[in-house]
Amino acid sequence: MLKTFSRGGVHPPENKLSAVQTIEQLALPKMVTIPISQHIGAPSTPIVKKNDLVKVGQIIAKSSGFVSANIHSSVSGKVIKIDSVMDSSGYKKQSIIIQVDGDEWEESINRDPQLIKEINLSSEEIIKKVGDAGIVGLGGATFPSQVKLSVPKGMTAEILIINGVECEPYLTADHRLMLEKGDELMVGTKILMKALNVSKAVIGIENNKRDAIEHLTSLSSNYEGITIQALKVQYPQGGEKQLIKAVINREVPSGGLPIAVGAVVHNVGTAYAVYEAIQKNKPLFERIVTVTGKSVKNPANYLARVGTSLTELIEASGGLPEDTGKVISGGPMMGKALNTIDIPMTKGTSGVLIIPVGESRRGVVQDCIRCAKCVSVCPMGLEPYLLMTVSEQQNYERTESERAMDCIECGSCSYTCPSNRPLLDYIRLGKAEVGAIIRSRKA
Q1: Which long-range contacts (C-beta less than 8 Å, at least 24 apart) are formed by 179-183?
Q2: H helix or E strand, kind and range, residue 60
Q3: Which of 16, 164, 263, 301 could form a disulfide with 268 if both were Cys (CB 3.0 to 4.6 A apart)?
């Protein structure tokens, strides 16, 4: 019997339209816009200025705190300005804008595709280099990876879990990575194991990716301590806490982190980026992005440079379809609807989803009928109908006591609600207010 988490979840249509499309290198853009805040934590501090010449892989903004990440140039050329530019959040963020001239890389980057298996760095050296390379979680959260690898005093990592679930409908970037960069992923996993001083790692993959499961299983015999775990197809299996429950049957406590149960979770894209950083001295300045949708002419998986406009990604797949109703950064469950496609892709851009107008409109909001479907599908055991109500009433004390901060924002509640109630929208608003209250209380 396939493993899965024990509470809630849904199974939306998978629509993995681009699963058979091999990774393509996207053409170099003429200009990139690189935000200095494309990770959880403090924005980076620019260390370049207007008219500076930069190379691919050169650091252009330094991390400004423990929870922060370095930013590197994804192109070579001239810095034409540092300005506030809108990103996927809909807000303007300080960004470094570079006019592309050629494709000159930092000499220290090893561009030879030959696999390097031998790991020569110590745990401390690996963690430092991961931080220097600006690596963040590529599953969507963009948490600085060096912080995750720095296990707090008094706690011990027992197992590394690599997230190859990719449970969001439509998205296939991780699937293609596992198929095309399997050995590099395995070495990256071994590097992470060494950084954490653990002897066991499990790569969890949903059972709708049988080819990836079979491929990595065949490779795993060459990598001691790494096993492949097939998982039941169940959204949101890729959630950290749900994946831990499915793989090792441990439950992360409310308000706690995975390390509280001895686990550290990294995405497959992050493990590959770690391989490139440690073995090839390559910072994180490009990633795989899925461009997809039922009306998209050529659904595809692109290896694209950070800072590339989403417009260029969409044009590479045949342009914006005439029946476009909505464009989403990410997947349909947890992604964000965009009010413009003239924004840059970032380290956290896993996909660009184009939804036809007929599927993009929300249904008419009706009264709650107390069916409790939202409660039954919540993987965190919350009461979404109640959280929406108290958030709408701005009763933030109750919002906090009802554990709003435990919500992983998977959208299962909104997906299943027969009354089309915007449950997640109000829960997110409530979480934002409660988060601010908690931070001010600590200060």
Answers
A1: 179/211, 179/212, 179/215, 180/22, 180/23, 181/272, 182/215, 182/216, 182/219, 183/115, 183/117, 183/219
A2: strand 59-62
A3: 164
CA distance linking residue 31 with residue 212, whole number of Å: 35
Domain boundaries, the chain: 123-280, 373-442
Whether residue 132 contacts residue 173, with contact meaning beta carbons closer than 8 Å, is answered with no
Nearest to 339, CA basis, from 358, 351, 326: 326
Which residues, 6 or more positions from 20, have their beta carbon under 8 angstroms from its beta carbon? none
- Tens digit of each residue's pLDDT (9 = 90 or more) over 263-274: 999 999 999 999
pLDDT digits (tens, 9 = 90+) for 334-347: 999 999 999 999 99
Output DSSP code: residue 258: G
> Pick from 352, 432, 336: which is nearest to 88 by CA?
336
If you classify domain 123-280 with CATH, what class do you get?
alpha beta
Neighbours of 348 (CB within 10 A): 21
Strand-pairing partners, residue 265, are 161
Contact criterion met (CB below 8 Å) for 414 and 368: no
Write down the number of H helices and E strands in the chain: 14, 17
Q: Which of the four pLDDT bands, split at 50, 70 and 90, describes residue 89?
A: confident
| Identity at 182, one-letter amino acid code | G
